[in-house]
Amino acid sequence: MSTVLETPVRAVEPTHPPRSWAAVFALARFEARELRMTVSFLGIAALYIAWIVWQSTQSQGDYPVLQDVDRATQTMPMLVGLAVMLGVNRAVVRSHRHDTDRHFDALVVEPWRRTVAHALSIVPAVLFTAVCVLVQFTWAALKPGAAGHGSPAELAVGPLTVLLFGALGVLFARLVRSVFAAPVILVLLLFGMLFVAPSSGSNWTSWLVPVVTESGSSPFPSDLLGRPAGWHVLYLVGLVLLAALVAVLVSGGRTTVVKAAVAGSLALTLVGAVGQSGGTPAGSTPARERATNSPAKVQSCLKHGGSTYCAFPEWTGRTADWAEVVDRVQNLAGGSAGGERLTVRQRVDATYGLTSDTAISPATTPGQVTVGTAWGGNRVPEFAAAVASVLVAGNEKAGSEVCDARMVTIMWLALGGESDPMTALRNVRLDDSVSGSAIVLSPTESMSMSAEQTRIVVELLKKPRYSVVGKVKANWTELTSPKTPTARVAELLGVPAADKSAVGTEADGGSCDE
User: In terms of pTM, does the model score above 0.70?
Assistant: First the structure.
């Protein structure tokens, strides 16, 4: 009989490999790749790139104002952020949807570390947005007609918005483990941004949303903006950190360091919110009033030919473009108007802030012409019309009140030197028409043009320029007299007389000269 001695086997505690952040970064790289390959992100990214190319190649963008361009970079990243938010939210709840959460218990990457990895997976999308923002701004800044200065804080808003939306997507997935939670919360966010938060940056509550663009009718000099862009960036950074750290906290990362970081990010958010709620800085209000009512005190003046051009410091490079238009108009004028020494002054109404749409009152100073802070596109024929009205009527106030036959002379002077005068006529009229009565736009108050005056101007613009210039110069005194009837102007310029019934109908409709 043999005895078998069995030595009891001692239970061995399982040994876990040391917790390494390498696994977190590996997971972050994988999730980042998956996020970039989602249909929503690829579609939005393609749309974003196409929009930048289209926006940057438009002719009206040949004279960008950089303090407006930096704000214009903030809108499209919101779409990228929404795509990232939905994508990362879906990635976080993927294991719950497929019922694989229990398998993660055997892995070395704890739930809170997986949350960190999902938060890090947003970074490539943020970098993509930052590159797009820089390309859009740099493209505008390199154009010869660019003016003004951009703000790094304004440029940072777009990438931070994407980062914020992504962090919120992670947080929502940890709070509500449903794939439908993010779309519902997304709808609520959009509703709040569009209908609850004020659209103007004048109210402190409007700065609680990620993007506050604030746009008005005319660009402002950069020192008159008065936007708390730096405080807003601090506010967004605080929100990003708060959302990401709270997501880590609810995932089990309840360490002292995480709790202290949550408290710090909350304090950072509150500091930014308080800082951006101060409204217009104290120094901006008197500066705006000075630029509006006494622009000569803050402008530099340059001479081109016989005229003087006064502009805000950021726009002095555009005076040559204004001089080219003035010379073109004066070359068509007769009498002393052809050599009159004009003063072209840049003016802006900054009294009521960036969102105001107040018309600039016409100047009463003889020989002074107003030019705005925007240029290119329709602004060129509008300025030419203002120059012509001063040459014909003596000053802007009198020119804006012209409704007699002198409008024919004004419009031909403004458009006769254009390479495409009919397109310029369409652009300078409020209704984009080339027939009938219409309102003619100007940097200050608009002018009125009757149907018969329009007909005569169209006939003149169809003629060779040299065939009209001589008649205008030879009959300048009569053409610029308020007593000259429209029929006489047509006769002097060689345009066939209008149908009597049409003229009679126009007169019955309230023509001021017949």
Answer: yes
